[in-house]
Each structure stands twice: as structure tokens, then as C-alpha cells.
Amino acid sequence: MTSVDLHLEDDLPQPSIPAKLSFTENPDTNEPSSYSSDSQIEIVIKQFEKKGEGMGAYIVYKVVTATQNMQGYIDREYVVWRRFSDFLGLHEKLVDKYFYKGYLVPAAPEKSIAALTRTKMNTSVDDNTNNEFAERRARGLQRFCRRIARHPKLVLDCDFRDFLTMTASLPKANSTVALSGAGVKRIFKTVSDVFSKMAFHMDENDRWFEAAQQQMEDMEQNLSKLLRAVESLSSYRRELISGTDSFSKALSMLSSCEENTTLARCLSHLTETYENIDQLHGVQSDKDCALLAEGISEQLQIIYTLKELFFERVKIWQNWQAAQQNLTRKREMKARHELSGRTDRTNQIIAELNSAEKAVDEVEKEFSEVSKVIRGEYETFLVERKNDMNDTFKQYLQELLETQKQFLKCWEIFAPETQSIEAT
Question: Name one GO cellular component term (predicted).
């Protein structure tokens, strides 16, 4: 069993207050509060284990859930072990139930063929590469679960509750397999959505949605630039680690062949100092990824999901247009039938016309309701994004300051050695 330090000390999630774009009022909502203000739920993924060998190998993650005054949760703490496919299955169930209604379902971490291959083919339990990937995935899965727990609608879903509380293994989600029939259907659906976006253009007459889409484009562009800068910083720090390691080895060789005892001892201590600094650079490089890069990537992924959510509204609008066109055809058919003086199909035509009018009313109502939900989801995201980014940068700067203090401590320990050289 390998322990996972996720470096995520976020506060317990609190119900968010929807934000307001500067030109609009927050849409009214008739949704009752899903849980009281004193309800709390915290989800932590503490450990992971490799199960099985060869092609049957897989990794399970220990999910620990602490609750207080949560509807549907009897115990104060739950501990379960879940496979990565269980997380994907949970995501798929939530998407099928809530996404088309306009609710923002957080995206789960993506599959990795390379990681899957290493897990199944590598027989070493303590492989550093596998452990680093598993830790990174564990942090992503923890963020995924916490996002769901922060949503007042999703947190009370029965599938999510079973995922957190059932100690037994969940039914295998075959639809999450890449080569399954459901996987092929997902590919065709994705291609179909791409062509739909290209073929249909919605003339947006709601200023709020028009401004929100532009705001998402701006946020995506700025966050992408910031992520590239952070990745460059992490890359440069890894290069610094390599250079510091080479320099410390060169100092070690120099101290071993130095004839002056005092100078040799000083060089030896300088070597130890650079070795300690090299380790600190490694720790800081990990924090660059675990705190900053992954936090920014999460925000980008939410924006991508929001874009898909906005497209769900476009698809309903397309259905609305199709229903209106069908209603127009039925009215024209009724008019031609009346002009012809025939009475044989009058009742059927009237029934079809009534059905078409009802379909238009239903789709129009659905479009209005989904638009209202999406507005609420987006405005909630604006508040959460601000708080999350603030917490991310605050925690990162605190860790960076602590690393700099450790650097200073290393040099303060080495300082007396330089004085001994001056004395001689």
C-alpha cells in the first residue's frame, strides 16, 4: 500500500451564492435548498493500491468521506475502495441524468493508455513513475468528487451516495471501456455534435448568454496562457534540479582531491548544501504541478464543460425550430384541406395540428427552463472560480515562501564554514 499526500487542504465546501454579470439580474429560482447551512461533507483520497498482476492489474483508491447533518448519509464517516472505472461510471450516470437539464457535471480525469500499459505490464510495486501518476490521478479524482459534493443537486444523487457509502464493489461499468459498444456510440455522438455546431448557427437574442460566451472565451485564453507559463516554470525548475545535481557531484569530486583539509571540509559541506537545495527544488517542482498547474487545468476543464453545457441549450433550440417548422406544415396542410372542401381526414388533421402545437409549447418551456438553470450554474461558477483561484494562489505562495525559508536555512548552516576558511 502506498500513501498519497495530496497537498489539498481546502476548507469544507459551503453553498455558493450565485454571481451576477454586470448587466443582468440573477435569475429567480424555485429550487429548494438541498441541505441546510450546517451540513458538511468532506471527501479525501488518502491511499491507493495495485491489485492483480499482468493484464488483470488495476489500481484502487481509498475514498474517505466525512459527513455532518447530510440528508441520506447516516454515518459520520465512510471508507470505500474504488477503481478508476468506477469514477468514470459515476460521471457517465450523472451526465445522463443531469447534463441535458442544464446542470454542470464536473469532468472526470481522462484515461491514459500509457498509464494503463504501465500498470498492467510493470511488476514492480515501488515504481516511481507509476506512483507519481497514481498520486496525480488521485488528486484529480479527489477534485472531481469534491466538485460534485459542492453542487446542491448532485450531492444528493443516489448514485453518488452509493459511490461514497457502499463498501461492496460497484457493478462494472462496461460503457467506460474504450472499445465497448457504448464507447463507439460516444465517438459517433461526439462527431455528430461537431457537425451540428458547424451546420447550425443560433442567432442569440439573449444578451446575457452572448456576454457569458464571450467571457468564457476570454477566460479560456487567459488561463491557457497562464497554464503554459506555469508548465514552463516547472520545466525550468526541473532543468535547475539537473544542473544543481551535476554541480554538487562536481563539488564532491573536487573536495575528495583537495589537499587542504579546511578547504576540503568546506567543499564537502558545500556539496551537502547543494544536495539539500536540489531536494528542495524537487519538492517545489512537485508543488508547481500539484497546486498551481493542476488547479489551473481544473478551471480550464470546467470552462470546456460549460461550453458543452451551453451547446445543450443550442440543441434544444434546434428542436424548437424543428417543432415550429412542423407546426407550420400542419397549419398549411389544414388550410389546403379546408380549401379542398374534403371532410374525410378533418379529425386526423386537427389532432395532428394540436399535437404539433403541444410539442412546440413543450420544447419552448424546456428551452426556457434549461436556459434558467444554465444561467444559475454559470453564475455559481463565477463565484467558485474566484474563491478557488484565490485559495490556489494563496496556498502556492505560502508553500513557495516556506521553500525559500528552507533555502535560507541551508545557507545559514553553511555560513560558518566560510568563516573557518577566512580564519586560516
Answer: early phagosome
CATH number of the domain where residue 118 is located: 3.30.1520.10
Q: Are 26 and 379 in contact (CB under 8 A)?
A: yes
Q: What's the number of domains the chain is made of?
A: 2
| 228 within 8 A of 220, measured Cβ to Cβ | no
- How far is Cα 123 from Cα 157, in angstroms, rounded to an integer? 38
Statement to judge: residues 163 and 219 lie in one domain? no
Residue 104 above 90 pLDDT? yes
> DSSP of 285-324, one letter per residue?
HHHIIIIIIHHHHHHHHHHHHHHHHHHHHHHHHHHHHHHH
Residue 396: inside a domain, yes or no?
yes
Question: Does residue 348 form part of some domain?
Answer: yes
User: Do residues 220 and 158 both lie within one domain?
Assistant: no
> Each residue of 190-245: pLDDT tens digit?
656 555 655 566 777 889 999 999 999 999 999 999 999 999 999 999 999 999 99
Are 133 and 229 members of one domain?
Answer: no
Nearest by Cα to 295 from 140, 406, 100, 171 = 140
- Are 76 and 66 spatial neighbours (Cβ–Cβ below 8 Å)? yes
From its phi and psi, is residue 127 left (phi > 0), alpha (psi between -120 and 50) or beta? beta
Same domain, 250 and 157: no
Cβ–Cβ < 8 Å for 40, 161 = no
Q: How far is residue 91's CA from residue 422's CA, in Å, rounded to a whole number?
A: 66
Q: For position 254, which CATH number holds?
A: 1.20.1270.60
CA distances from 194 to 191, 301, 304, 348 (A): 5, 18, 14, 38
Over residues 392-398, the mean pLDDT reads: 95
Contact call for residues 149 and 78 (beta carbons, < 8 A): no
pTM of the model: 0.81
